[in-house]
Amino acid sequence: MYPRSARTTAARDRGRIGYQRADAHQILDEAYHCCLTFVVDGEPRALPTLHVRIGDELYLHGSTGSTPLLAARHPDGLPVCVVVTILDGLVYARSQFHHSANYRSVIVHGTARLVTEAPDKRRVLDALVDKVGSGRAADSRPPTRRELAETAVLAVALTEVSVKCRAGGPGDDPADLALPHWAGVVPLRTVAGPPQPAPEVRSAPPDYLATVARTPSGGHPHGARTHT
Predict the structure, then answer these.
(1) Can you give 141-182 as a three-state secondary structure string?
(2) Residue 228: band (very low, low, confident or very high) from pLDDT cuts 50, 70, 90
């Protein structure tokens, strides 16, 4: 269980928020991308990027010349907020007011620091590549010294973390239940299609790509509560 803080305590819809470590890790591991938000020179910034979790540390991929990576060089690091969202369904209610979405999300507050040691960067980049297919890091060329120098990795400790989820059907008011409008849920999920080889490739797709294709993103974690 992650401890609550002022920044992770919900002001509304408190029944949807939780702090279970296992739920947060499951969502972070399932999602392939995140949104990194920060402030530079008094201006808010948002950057979509790739991430991977290793233990209780979240790592973000970027370029050494990008704004957040340059700002994170400060000795105190860079205060950030990282948001991960998986959309599981569109919720149609009889009233417009109660239309909603089923989703699972994680919000992480913390201070990002640059990973500077080459062995640590290689370890994180291997984990990031393996996230798209277990075994892919060993089945691809590792970065050269120059490529490693041009690639930046940010680390954010998972200490201030909250999980917010919604699952289930519409929450129409009792007075609207007799209305003739259709109500219900349209499930959404991300499904991997068949691998499409590059023109020069003649070998069969590796086995780990078949595993990726069999694990669509969708549904909700075991034990997730139903909310309206």
Answers:
(1) CCCCHHHHHHEEEEEEECCEEEEEEECCCCCCCHHHCCCCCC
(2) very low
Measured between alpha carbons, how far is 67 from 85 in angstroms, rounded to an integer?
23
3-class secondary structure per residue, 38-74: EEECCEEEEEEEEEEEECCEEEEEEECCCHHHHHCCC
CA–CA dist 20, 224 (Å, integer): 11
Q: For residue range 106-162, what is the model confidence (pLDDT) as tens digits?
A: 999 999 999 989 999 999 999 999 999 999 999 999 999 999 988 989 999 999 999
Is 188:89 a contact under the CB 8 Å cutoff?
yes
Model pTM above 0.90: no
Domains of the chain: 14-171+189-213 (2.30.110.10)
Structure tokens given for 54: 């290793």
State mean pLDDT over 48-64.
Answer: 93
Coarse DSSP helix, strand, coil percentages of the chain, rounded to the nearest 5 percent: 20, 35, 45
